[in-house]
Specification:
binds adenosine-5'-triphosphate, single chain, about 325 residues, binds magnesium ion, about 35% helix
């Protein structure tokens, strides 16, 4: 019987505290994260600014040294086997790190040569990727004269030159317009369909929801929840969240809604009311009605259907902001 294949990524209690520097105290950026990503999976690390996503991806790609716990990529230890891991992974960082002295194609070929391909093989592989990513017109282009989306595609091609076992992408669509973003989603879906294991970080709920087989929600260096998007919704937020802002403190009547079937929770903070409901129909109208009966008007109202956003709200009690 052959051993089961090593998971693509596995971490146990992974931690990183950046040391104090001058007046700045030490920063516990990652405080014990357990991840398990099987091969072939499209996995997302989702969290707001400063959650610890880049630090985590930095440790997995051997650029940041952990201060606690362990991390293995393709079965190799990120500290002891850093050199070998670098040969087996592809990394796409958030900013443009292409070489501006080289054309797009040369950037790819150069990377291929670095990984030991012959000049001929490097060229062939670069040509394949350029075609696959729809970059033919830009093959001789300067990477810094391209649009953000084009440059990002070149960076992904470069990361794929040596056929990495795991592709890491740190915020691949940050700063791109919506159309370019969805184009890039198509590209990434295609890669996964071809068997590529992908781990990405993102701020965007809808990106994680659109792409990822499984998602880990991180905040303040901790894992709040992990699972398929459906699992997360089922465990942490099968609710629709209705938020209403009154122009005065919320009427007491509102609290009674919490006892009703189909309503899981009611939160009142001054004039702001948030209702978590499995049966949301009619609640918004009712909130308006209760207000006007008490002489209180509604200045703002939103209704969020169950989504990663409501999961985040349920897990943290805070609105998800980019
Ligand atoms: N090199 C560093 N030295 C000290 N502190 C750092 C360093 N890099 C990151 N941090 C801090 O660690 C915390 C986590 O940062 P990190 O970049 O991992 O978050 P992130 O989830 O990637 O955020 P963003 O969405 O803004 O990219 C933040 O408080 C950040 O200020
Ligand atoms: Mg980051």
């Amino acid at each position: 019987m052959s051993a089961p294949p090593e998971p693509a990524v596995q971490t146990v209690e992974l931690k990183k505290t950046y040391p104090a520097a001058g007046p700045r105290p030490a920063v516990p950026a990652v405080r014990g994260i357990d991840l398990d990503v099987p091969r072939g999976e499209f996995f997302g690390l989702l969290g707001p600014n400063g959650a610890g996503k880049s630090t985590t991806i930095g440790m997995l790609t051997t650029l940041v040294v952990p201060t606690g716990g362990t991390a293995r990529v393709s079965g190799l230890d990120v500290v002891k086997d850093a050199v070998e891991i670098k040969r087996r992974i592809g990394v796409v960082s958030q900013n443009n790190t292409l070489d501006s002295d080289l054309t797009a194609a040369e950037n790819l070929e150069f990377r291929g040569r670095f990984f030991g391909l012959s000049a001929r093989d490097a060229r062939r592989r670069a040509d394949e990727l350029i075609e696959l990513f729809g970059l033919t017109e830009h093959r001789k282009g300067n990477p810094f004269e391209m649009s953000g989306g084009q440059a990002k595609r070149v960076m992904i091609c470069r990361a794929l030159m040596h056929g990495p076992e795991v592709l890491f992408l740190d915020e691949p669509t940050a700063g791109l317009d919506p159309q370019t973003r969805t184009n890039l989603w198509e590209v990434l879906r295609g890669l996964q369909a071809g068997g590529q294991t992908i781990l990405l970080t993102t701020h965007y709920m809808e990106e994680a929801e659109a792409l990822c087989d499984r998602v880990a929600v991180v905040d303040h260096g901790r894992l709040l929840a992990a699972g398929t998007v459906d699992e997360l919704k089922a465990t942490a937020g099968a609710d629709t969240v209705i938020t209403v802002a009154y122009d005065a403190p919320a009427p007491d009547e509102i609290h009674k809604l919490g006892d009703r079937d189909g309503i899981s929770k009611v939160e009142v903070t001054g004039g702001q009311v948030r209702v978590f409901a499995t049966e949301p129909d009619g609640i918004l109208g009712e909130l308006v009605g209760i207000g006007s009966a008490a002489g209180v008007g509604v200045t703002d109202a939103t209704q969020l259907r169950p989504s990663l956003e409501t999961v985040f709200l349920t897990l943290t009690g805070r609105e998800y902001r980019e």
